[in-house]
UniProtKB/TrEMBL annotation:
Main subcellular location: membrane
Classification via Gene3D superfamilies: FAS1 domain
Membrane topology: Lipid-anchor; GPI-anchor
The organism's taxonomic lineage, starting at the top: Eukaryota, Viridiplantae, Streptophyta, Embryophyta, Tracheophyta
A GO cellular component entry from the record: side of membrane
Domain of life: Eukaryota
Record-given protein name: FAS1 domain-containing protein
Length: 431
C-alpha cells in the first residue's frame, strides 16, 4: 500500500476515535456549576437530560437558580419538562454565532418541536440581535416578546454541545396546558390510542387499580394495540387463570418513569410490576437507531408511540403482547382463529384489592416464539447517528454473536481501544 494511502487510513481511524468520545452528559457538566443546580435537578427529574444526551448537536439555554425558581413555582413536572425542552435548541450556537446571524435573526428548532405537541412552528425559537449588542430569544408565536436575553457562555464542546446562560425562560400561551395523569381517564386514553382490548383486560382483572396506585410514584406502561391481540401464534389468553392474567398485565408495566429517550439508556434487565426477587418477569431493552423494543427473552415488541408523558407517568403503545417465558415458555396452545378484538375472552376478575401471586407455567423444553407481525405505523427516522447496539439475533449461536458484538461496542467507547483497532486494521492492510 502506498505511503499516502496508509497515512489517510491512519487519519481516518484517528478521526473515528475522536468521534467515539464526543458524546456528552449534560448533568455531569452542570454539576460543576452550582449556580445552575436547580435547572440541573429538573433536567434529571423530567428526564430531559436523556433527550439532550441523545442529540449529537445541541445548545442548552440554562437558567440561574433564581430564574429557575420563578419558572417552576405552581407548575407541574410535565409543564416544567416542556419549558426545558423549549430552552433546548437543536443546533450549535456560541457567542460568535449569536452575534453574526444572517440578517440579524433566525428561527431554530427546539426539543419541544420534536414532541408532536407543538402546533405549527410553536416549537421554534426566534433568535434576534437586539439594540445595544444584546441577543434575544422568543417563542415563534406571533407577538412574543424577547424576555430572555443572552447573558454569558458557560461551556462549549465544538460543534456538539454548547451551554449558554439566559436571563429568563421562553414561554408562550398554551405551553403550560399539558394533560395531567391525575386528571386522565386511563381506559378512555387507551381506547383512543387503539388499545381497547388491553383496556378491557385491565378493568376486568382489577389491575387498573394497581396502575392508578403507581401513577403518583412512578409508572411506565406498555399497552399492546388491538392488532397485537389478533397476531398469529398468540397464546390463548382465555386459558390463563385469574392470577396468571394479573401477572401478565403487571408484566406490561415498570415501577419507574421511563420515556423513550430514557429507555435507550437502560442496560441489562429491568424489573416490572410482576418481577420477583429471583429475577423472574424482568424485561430488557433493545435499541436500533431510533427504534426501541422491549425484549421478553421469547420475543421483542417495538415501542410504537407515546400517548401520555406526564412525569412520573408515561404510557407507550407496543406492537405485540409481551409474553414472559415464565408463563409461556412451555409452548402454550395458540389462540383460536382471530376475530374481532371483543371476541377475545378475558379471565374472571380477581377480588378487589387482592394481588394474587404469580403462578408460572413450566412444562417441557422452552421454545422461541415466532415474532408477531407489526401493524403499527413505522417509527420516525432517527435524526442523530445510530449509537445504539443492533437488534440481537435469535437463537443461542446468534445470541453468542450478539454478546460479543455488544462487548465490542462497549470497548469502542475507549479511545485506546479504538486506536488499537485502527492499528490492527493498518497491520492487516500490509498482508
Amino acid at each position: 500500500m502506498a505511503a499516502t494511502d496508509r497515512r489517510l487510513l491512519f487519519l481516518l481511524a484517528a478521526s473515528l476515535a475522536v468521534a467515539a468520545v464526543s458524546s456528552h452528559n449534560i448533568t455531569d457538566i452542570l454539576d460543576g456549576y452550582p449556580e445552575y443546580s436547580l435547572y440541573n435537578s429538573y433536567l434529571s427529574q423530567t428526564k430531559v437530560c436523556d433527550e439532550i444526551n441523545s442529540r449529537s448537536t445541541v445548545t442548552c439555554l440554562v437558567l440561574t437558580n433564581g430564574a429557575m425558581s420563578s419558572l417552576v413555582s405552581n407548575l407541574s413536572l410535565a409543564d416544567i419538562k416542556n419549558a426545558l425542552r423549549l430552552l433546548t435548541l437543536l443546533d450549535y450556537y456560541d457567542t460568535k454565532k449569536l452575534h453574526s446571524l444572517s440578517d440579524g435573526s433566525e428561527l431554530t428548532t427546539t426539543l419541544y418541536q420534536t414532541t408532536g405537541d407543538a402546533s405549527g412552528n410553536m416549537g421554534h425559537v426566534n433568535i434576534t440581535n437586539l439594540r445595544g449588542g444584546k441577543v434575544g430569544f422568543a417563542s415563534a408565536a406571533p407577538g412574543s416578546k424577547f424576555q430572555a436575553t443572552y447573558t454569558k457562555s458557560v461551556k462549549q464542546e465544538p460543534y456538539n454541545l454548547s451551554v449558554l446562560e439566559v436571563s429568563d425562560p421562553i414561554t408562550f400561551p398554551g405551553l403550560f396546558d399539558s394533560p395531567s395523569a391525575a386528571s386522565t381517564n386511563l381506559t378512555a386514553l387507551l381506547e383512543k390510542a387503539g388499545c381497547k382490548q388491553f383496556a378491557r383486560l385491565i378493568v376486568s382483572s382489577g389491575v387498573i387499580k394497581m396502575y392508578q396506585a403507581a401513577m403518583d410514584k412512578a409508572l411506565t406502561l406498555f399497552a399492546p394495540n388491538d392488532d397485537a391481540f389478533q397476531a398469529k401464534g398468540l397464546p390463548d389468553l382465555s386459558k390463563l387463570t385469574s392470577a396468571e392474567l394479573v401477572t401478565l398485565l403487571q408484566y406490561h408495566a415498570l415501577p419507574q418513569y421511563a420515556p423513550k429517550a430514557s429507555l435507550k439508556t437502560i442496560k441489562g434487565h429491568i424489573q416490572t410490576l410482576a418481577s420477583t426477587g429471583a429475577g423472574k418477569y424482568d424485561l430488557s431493552v433493545v435499541t436500533k437507531g431510533d427504534d426501541v423494543s422491549m425484549d421478553t427473552g421469547m420475543d421483542k415488541s417495538r415501542v410504537a408511540s407515546t400517548v401520555l408523558d406526564d412525569t412520573p407517568t408515561v404510557i407507550h403503545t407496543v406492537d405485540s403482547v409481551l409474553l414472559p417465558p415464565e408463563l409461556f415458555g412451555g409452548a402454550p396452545s395458540p389462540a383460536p382463529a382471530p376475530g374481532p378484538a371483543s371476541d377475545v375472552p378475558a379471565a374472571s376478575p380477581s377480588p378487589e384489592g387482592s394481588s394474587p401471586a404469580p403462578s408460572p407455567k413450566a412444562a417441557g423444553k422452552k421454545k422461541k416464539k415466532g415474532k408477531s407481525p407489526s401493524h403499527s405505523p413505522p417509527a420516525p427516522p432517527a435524526d442523530t447517528p445510530d449509537m445504539s447496539p443492533a437488534d440481537a439475533p435469535a437463537g443461542e449461536e446468534a445470541a453468542d454473536k450478539a454478546e460479543k458484538k455488544n462487548g465490542a461496542t462497549a470497548a469502542a467507547t475507549s479511545v485506546a481501544a479504538i486506536v488499537a483497532s485502527a492499528a490492527a486494521l493498518l497491520a492487516a492492510s500490509f498482508l
